[in-house]
Specification:
By secondary structure, the chain is an all-alpha fold. The chain has one domain (33-174). Helices cover 77% and strands 0% of the residues. Helix 2 runs antiparallel to helix 5 (115-136).
Length: 175
């Protein structure tokens, strides 16, 4: 019986060690997934709040989205620079990626109107707002962002960079 308990304890120790090593590897990979050639700039929460407000207004009045193409491109560029400077697995990174993706969804809507783009933009704006609330409200429960969250955000950021390249081509073809 004692041998079985020792074996179980040793197995748990090794499992815990492997999990810790795995999380360290995820954190390292996340750092290496930064978008190249994007200058970093610290996130400005007030500007982020204004971006959320503007984009929520566009989701509520989608007929106006076509008139905001350049503004949405600028918001996406700003959010990309915030993502470049943000620590991995942080509220800042999550906010930046959520805002960048929402701006991309609205730009995509301008090219091919679909309710799914608006729904995705709304969900991403809600995520950004929630993280901003947590950042600005010192009494909010500070939940740590895990290494896996950082990896997810970095991958989403790279995916959005690719989508923006496609949008640029589509917008150019439309002119």
């Amino acid at each position: 019986m004692v041998t079985a308990l020792l074996a179980a304890g040793f197995a748990l120790y090794l499992t815990g060690r492997d999990a810790g090593s795995s999380l360290d590897a995820v954190a390292k990979v996340s750092e290496e997934l930064r978008e190249p050639d994007v200058p970093g700039q610290a996130l400005d929460p007030e500007t982020a709040l204004r971006m959320v407000t503007v984009m929520e207004g566009l989701v509520d009045a989608p007929e106006a989205i076509g008139d905001y193409g350049e503004d949405l491109r600028l918001m996406a560029d700003t959010a990309a620079s915030w993502a470049a400077a943000a620590p991995t697995a942080s509220r800042e990174l999550h906010i930046a990626v959520s805002l960048r993706s929402a701006a991309g969804d609205l730009r995509a809507y301008a090219l091919r109107p679909s309710q799914s783009y608006l729904m995705r933009a709304r969900r991403r704006l809600d995520q950004a707002q929630s993280s901003l609330d947590g950042m600005l409200n010192s009494t909010a429960t500070q939940q740590p962002h895990l290494a896996t969250d950082g990896l997810r955000d970095q991958l989403q950021n790279l995916e959005q960079a690719h989508r923006e390249q496609q949008l640029e081509v589509d917008e150019e073809l439309r002119r």
